[in-house]
Amino acid sequence: MAPKVVGFGEEDLRALAGTRSFERGLGYLDAVSGLEVGEGSVTAVVHGTDVYEVELTLGGDEGVSGWCDCPYGQEGNFCKHCVAVGLTVLRRVKTIPQQRAAARARASGLEAWLSALSRDELLALVREQIAEDRELRRRLELRAAAARCDLGTVRDRIVALTDPRPFARYGYIEYADASGYARQVAEAASALRALTADGQAAQAVGLAEEAIRVLGEAYGEIDDSDGVVGEAAAAVAEAHLEACGAARPDPARLADWLVGQVLDGSNDVTDLDPLDYADVLGPSGLARIRQLATEALRRRPSGWAERYLMERLIKAEGDVDALVALHAQDLGPTGATHLLIAEELESAGRADEALAWAERGLRDCASQTYIDGRLVDYVCARYAQTGRAADAVAVRRDRLRLERSLAAYRQLRAVARAADCWEAERAAALATLEEDARRERGGRYGGPVLIDALLDDGDLDAAWREAAGHADDRQWAQLADLSRETRPAEALGVYLRLIERSKEPTGDRAYEHLARLLQAARDCHRALGTEDAFTLFLTDLRMELKRRRKLMTILDRHGL
Prior knowledge:
Elements: H1 2-6, H2 10-26, E1 32-37, E2 41-47, E3 51-58, E4 64-68, H3 71-74, H4 80-91, H5 96-116, H6 119-132, H7 134-147, H8 151-162, H9 175-197, H10 201-218, H11 228-247, H12 251-263, H13 278-299, H14 304-317, H15 320-328, H16 336-347, H17 351-364, H18 373-385, H19 389-403, H20 406-418, H21 422-438, H22 449-457, H23 460-467, H24 473-483, H25 488-501, H26 508-528, H27 531-544, H28 549-557
């Protein structure tokens, strides 16, 4: 089959493009030319409003992705031109192995030909190419300036490559322009690495830091949805690290710069980690970073960047007690920080202390309606592991009393069943939810949680008793759905009320909902032996709403 050869099929193209673009792509099959199939990609030209270049990347089992330089494709969409090329590949799938073999042969032939050229012939070829390819010429000019130590030219070029202004037509870089800017930033990273390779590492350090500063200032005004600018900026950061490794700059100065990057927010785009520079910093540089981090945390104890930096240093040192002390300085109101401390202690093999911190989190946050569910799960899991089932039930019981949610009810039910005490616990839990319902507070999703709990338990008799005057439409519909076979008359009454309320809204979604209600009502009439009554009801409804043509189409499709 085709997917085994190229890694995708027509259904993948339709999913990527959407039905509209896929159907339009069918009309461009005769417009595809210059198809070239490589090991992991396909390139072609599609003649449309203009001549567009298309490249499909073949990912084997991972499928296919596409790029096109048409306006729609440049916005990151899998356009009709990509569809046309993909379909062309599938229609020529039998020739793919031969085309790949031919591509390998061409590459091998090119390599052999280049190797056989003389120096003068190679120079003539390069000159010919740089006369036609401006981007290639700029890259080679930069390499040449670095080789002859023309640092002024190199600096000017790197500054120009990282300057976002030519791409910021409206004061910021739009999505369509981000890839162009990213290519220039990546070119700057290559130039920095070349500078280091040519023995100018110290200069590369300074230029990389300037480029990182520009990127940090510009990144907030870039639509980098695909992350291409971030990837290119990371390459600049890697070039800086490589240059530092070769130049061995002053550890204290480097420490000051790295801490500054973390604390002033310029680190967002490059994601610099001072510990990556540990070999370059040495003991004195790391000590300087620790000093700066301590001072920064003293000035802003709750600062995110300050705490992150100190946390990274402490983790690198392996001092669990210091890490616990750091987190304990700023305990959050939801218990998330308590859980973080518990997990660090458990990782260090200190399970008893870990559980003690998690229990403290429950106590500290006991009055909070919202508490991090992971903390509650952690404590209950540890109780279960140590045979403390009754304690787990008590924790879940307390949470239900505070939260009054279906999720809390389900969690209590699970632990109480495990402890073989659900019957008693259920009575108390339902009493809590009954009190809630009587206050007419309602549930988080509309109707009282009591009704949701009864439905979840499958206690339909009790749910019917409680629903009158309290349930919302969602709960009524669920109750009717569950009771359609056993209580068709009561369920039918619910569906008729909901149908009446559903006649007003318009749109496909509303019409599909109305059709589902009508199907359910029809099932109830069948169970009651009153199908003629449903036929008459449906006829009247269609007459009443006959002007809604889309609704009529949907009803026809559902056999109504």
